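Q: Given only this backbone (116 positions), what sequence would you predict?
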């Protein structure tokens, strides 16, 4: 049976996969948009949207949780700049736009960005 196979593994070990997702999340928060593969884009979308929802409360507990996940600089940027833009919005903070395939390995590419 194929139960409990929701998460993508990307052919990586757990700590490497966690580091990849963390670095992609930080890059998206700092730059506003990133270009990555479609599978990685779909994976970080839910993680970043949960972070934005947590940053909207901006209390001490949520700030500490964000700092432990993405570091103090990205957490501060998320709480002070990005989250206030989405106060009226209930969800759907990011957009995934599919791009052409990569020439070298024909991987499906996507652009992940925050909705304005």
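A: Predicted residues:
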């Amino acid at each position: 049976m194929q139960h409990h196979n929701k998460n993508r593994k990307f052919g990586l070990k757990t700590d490497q996969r966690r580091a990849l997702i963390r670095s992609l999340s930080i890059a998206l928060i700092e730059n506003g948009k990133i270009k990555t593969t479609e599978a990685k884009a779909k994976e970080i979308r839910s993680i970043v949207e949960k972070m934005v929802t947590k940053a909207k409360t901006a209390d001490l507990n949520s700030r500490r949780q964000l700092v432990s996940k993405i570091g103090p600089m990205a957490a501060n940027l998320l709480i002070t700049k990005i989250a206030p833009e989405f106060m009226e919005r209930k969800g759907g903070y990011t957009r995934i736009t599919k791009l052409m395939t990569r020439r070298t390995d024909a991987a499906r590419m996507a652009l992940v960005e925050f909705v304005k």
